[in-house]
Structures are given as structure tokens and as C-alpha cells.
Amino acid sequence: MEHSELINLLLNSSEPSVRWKIRVKVLGEERDSPPIRELEKEIAESPRVAALLSKVDKQGRLKAKVYAKWQGAQWVLMTLADIGYPCGMKWLQPTADEVMGAWLTERYFQEFAAESKPDAYKKLRKAIPLMQGRHRVCASQQGNALYAVLALGLEDERIHQLAERLLHWQWPDGGWNCDKELDADTSTFIHTLWAMRGLHLYAQHTGDPKAARAVTRAAEVFLTRKLYKRVRDGRVIREEFIKLHYPLYWHYDILAALKVFAEIGMTGDPRLQDALALLKEKELPYGGWPAESRYYTKVSDQISLGADYVDWGGTSKKKLNEWVTADALYVLKKFGELNI
User: Fold this and answer.
1) Per-residue DSSP letters for 84-139?
2) Are 145 and 99 in contact (CB under 8 A)?
3) How far apart are the C-alpha atoms of 180 and 142, rounded to whole Å?
4) Which residue(s) pair with 56 in the sheet?
5) Residue 65, C-beta contacts closer than 8 angstroms, at least 6 positions apart
6) Number of helical (H) and strand (E) elements in the chain, helices listed first
7) 1 or 81: which carries more pLDDT confidence?
């Protein structure tokens, strides 16, 4: 199937969020145009979004722990930002406030020197361990929060604190890691990708040159490994990295990495070509891309570990997943590889 046929197929999806991804991300329609505003209104009123926001009370607060996997406010805001929920819906500001507040408590402004893994855990609840000159912190938390509130137009002055913390914690190799092993000296893809994404959007909004430089440094963590390969021998770092998923939450795969590189406008580096070729190889014979694995374990309106409020199409080796396919088409568009 030519990509033009696939695009037309998704433009007729029953899911307004899929149509939004195609019209805005692939076809380039402006979000402030009347047709897209009308589509975003449809997204906001859709059963999918109603389920995602089912635990938000009349005060605009989501009645679950911020980081409850995968139904807390962190994940709901990230999802809304990714599927075209309208910007500036201020009734959700209290939920955004709780997300920002969760990652800016006093603990994140305190640090202590630790000489071993047990030592690092002694004061972990009160401060960030500093080991061998590297802050051991799960920076995807601040990075994803920064991205979500900016993308949804729910930011306030605290975005500057989120960005400052990420800049303060950045490792010498350009990324971030929470590993408490003393000799850990290499950033992790998971925390680096989402911190990089948040800082890029922050740099776009504020023009902050430090944030922009941090994004360029962080990109090298992935580029030196071609997004999924070990430096020393070229082997796949982790099999899950080369499977396709939706949603990813705080996890990592090559599609997410290519998507973020497309967002930051860094598509010309030849070190991206292996991952791009692998993504193209995963296209189904009759068109589209599948969700090969997933991180939510069930669908439920009750808060429980591993649950999501909605079904994102399940997994299959033969059936396309609309959200994965829409994201893959966006990547191909930005990399000049659409077959239309």
C-alpha cells in the first residue's frame, strides 16, 4: 500500500486523535486553523478522553497518585499532549499544578555525596545522591512533566525550575541516569530521551540557549549508538528497544527516538539511518505498522498497577496499530521518506 492510501485510510479513522496526528503531524495543517480547532474539540469530547479524565474531580484534580502507573496525572497529561487535546484548557490547571509540584519538592533541590549503592539509598527520600560527580536521578519525571504542561498550554513559572534542575543534573556524556551503582558512567536512553524532549520544547518556548545546547549534547547519547546499538560491538542494546509500542509512558523504542529527533529538527545525521531503515522494514506488507509489544497490562477504570484507562489497539504481528502507524508516517515525513 502506498503511503497516500494509508494516509487516506487513517483520515477516515473513527478515532479523532488518529485523524489529528495525520492532519497536523503528517499533512502539516495548522493547529489554530478553524478545521483543526473543531477536530480538537471532537477529541476533547471523545469517549477516549472522557475515560482518560474520568478520575478528574470538579476541582480539576486527578484522584490518583501523580505517578501511578499508568493512570496517574503524569501519564494522563502526557497522553493528552500526544493525541491533540486542545491547548490552554485551564480547568485542568490543578492537575498540571500537582504534576509540576511533585517534581519540584525540596528533595530535588538537595543533594548528598554517596560512596556506594547502599549509601545512596540512605538519604534518597530527602535528597538526590551525587556519585562520582554524577547526579543519580530519574530525569524522565521532570522531562515528561515539562513537555506535557508546555504542550498543553498549562505551564507557569515553575517550568523554569524544571528546566534548571534538568540542566543541573545533566551528565558529562550529555544524558541522565538514576543508576545507583558507583561506577555507572553512561547515561540511560530512557531518562535521556524524555529529558531531551522536554528541554527542546522549553527552548522553543523561551529561547533559552542553555537548554538548546543541552539538547544537542543529549542527542549524542543516541547518535553514538545509532539509537539502539552498543558502541563496542554494534549489537542491539535491548530487544525491547527495537519493538514498536503505543503508548510508551517512560519507556524507550526506536520509533519514539526517531519521533523526538524529528521534533527537534535533527534528521540529517547519517547515524540515524540504521534505525530509520529498521522502522521501514517493520512496515506490514499491506501497509501500516503494528504495536509489537505494550506496557499497559490491562484496561480498567479502577486505579491499579499497570492499567490504562483505555485500549490502545492491543498488539499484533499482522495488524496495523493506528497510533503507531500515524507516528511512523510522521517520522517518514520529517525524514523525507514518505512514498506518496
Assistant:
1) TPPTT-GGGHHHHHHHHHHTSSGGGG-EEE-SSHHHHHHSTTTSEEEETTEEB--T
2) yes
3) 19
4) 62
5) 72
6) 14, 5
7) 81
Strand order of the β-sheet with 128-131 is 111-113, 128-131, 134-135
Q: Which of 193, 186, 177 is nearest to 261 (CA)?
A: 193
- C-alpha–C-alpha distance, residues 261 and 269, integer Å: 10
Residue where the block lists cell 533541590:
109
3-class DSSP state for residue 24? helix
SS3 string of 60-84?
CCECCCCCCCCCCHHHHHHHHHHCC
Q: Which three cell numbers stand for residue 215?
A: 539538547
Q: Give the residue carrying C-alpha cell 545507583.
A: 180
Q: What is the pTM of this model?
A: 0.97
Which amino acid type is present at position 45? E
| Structure confidence by residue, pLDDT tens digits, 54-74 | 999 999 999 999 999 999 999
Q: What is the C-alpha to C-alpha distance for residues 304 and 98, in angstroms, rounded to an integer?
A: 20
d(Cα 4, Cα 69) in Å, to the nearest integer?
Answer: 37
pLDDT in tens, 258-302: 999 999 999 999 999 999 999 999 999 999 999 999 999 999 999
